[in-house]
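Q: Given only this backbone (271 positions), what sequence would you predict?
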């Protein structure tokens, strides 16, 4: 729901924006986690949110999902927005003999066909009757993506989906997400703490360290000599790209932009 009144709701509904965060600030006690953060998510566009541990990425995702409210600024959401969320961690009770099919049904009760189609789309239809607790990290990730897709989301939010997956698995996942975007036209918000390697088809990269440090588009891995050496001349990982940061400031350890007595920036540079 939009917080900006009728006029703003109408304006946003017309332009199709899924979620718009305007100058959001949020603090836990004295600890400022987000400071004047703005972000716009559009249908059919992939946004990658990167930043070091503790930068506020998951907190910003919670604002986008409507699970938290900013102390300052506002968050507008398209009326009736359907969101599919793939969490960073999921606790599955090891003692429960839960099958993949049952696991999906619990999230979205409905026809078997829909669950089969969702698993088919993420390339793991063969796992439908398997126990969730026996799945590998990469298999679980695809099941979680199928679960998010069952909601037929306008916006897919994935928190660190590449965590615990090797580079080839990350490349395959990003390829799959590109297909999902092309087929469904949904917007995608991807969260990652990898400051350099991002999904090649990302439309905008936003680097967060409590505030937005910089944003832009990634460059193909094949154009970066370091990754060229790693992946070979053909750029064997077509779905990965390099993001080059463009900061005009450094950070001290609290994440605050830092200037020395002479007006020069100093502190911990995180790119
Ligand atoms: N409910 C809470 N109460 C107090 N502090 C919190 C709460 N949630 C998050 N924080 C703090 O806010 C900061 C940002 O956390 P957040 O999880 O948003 O960062 P992140 O960028 O997603 O980090 P990571 O990459 O490690 O997952 C951290 O210092 C965290 O300890």
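A: Predicted residues:
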């Amino acid at each position: 729901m939009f917080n900006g009144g009728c006029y703003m709701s109408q304006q946003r509904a017309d332009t199709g924006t899924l979620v718009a965060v305007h100058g959001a600030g949020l603090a836990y006690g004295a600890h400022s986690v987000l400071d004047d953060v703005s972000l716009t998510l559009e249908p059919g566009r992939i946004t990658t949110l990167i930043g070091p541990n503790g930068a506020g990425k998951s907190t910003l995702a919670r604002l986008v999902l409507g699970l938290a409210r900013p102390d300052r600024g506002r968050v507008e959401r398209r009326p009736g927005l359907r969101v599919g969320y793939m969490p960073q961690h999921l606790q599955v009770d090891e003692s429960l003999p839960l099958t993949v099919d049952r696991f999906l049904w619990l999230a979205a009760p409905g026809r078997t066909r829909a669950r089969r189609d969702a698993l088919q789309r993420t390339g793991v239809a063969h796992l439908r009757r398997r126990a969730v607790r026996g799945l590998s990290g990469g298999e679980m990730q695809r099941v979680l993506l199928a679960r998010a897709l069952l909601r037929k989301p306008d916006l897919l939010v994935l928190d660190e989906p590449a965590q615990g997956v090797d580079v080839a698995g990350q490349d395959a996942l990003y390829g799959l997400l590109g297909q999902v975007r092309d087929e469904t036209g949904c917007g995608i918000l991807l969260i990652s703490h990898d400051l350099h390697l991002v999904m090649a088809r990302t439309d905008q990269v936003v680097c967060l360290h409590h505030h937005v440090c910089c944003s832009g588009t990634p460059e193909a891995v094949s154009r970066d000599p370091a990754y060229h050496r790693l992946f070979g001349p053909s750029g064997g990982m077509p779905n990965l790209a390099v993001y080059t940061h463009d900061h005009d400031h450094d950070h001290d350890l609290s994440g605050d932009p830092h200037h020395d007595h002479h007006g020069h920036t100093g502190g911990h540079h995180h790119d």
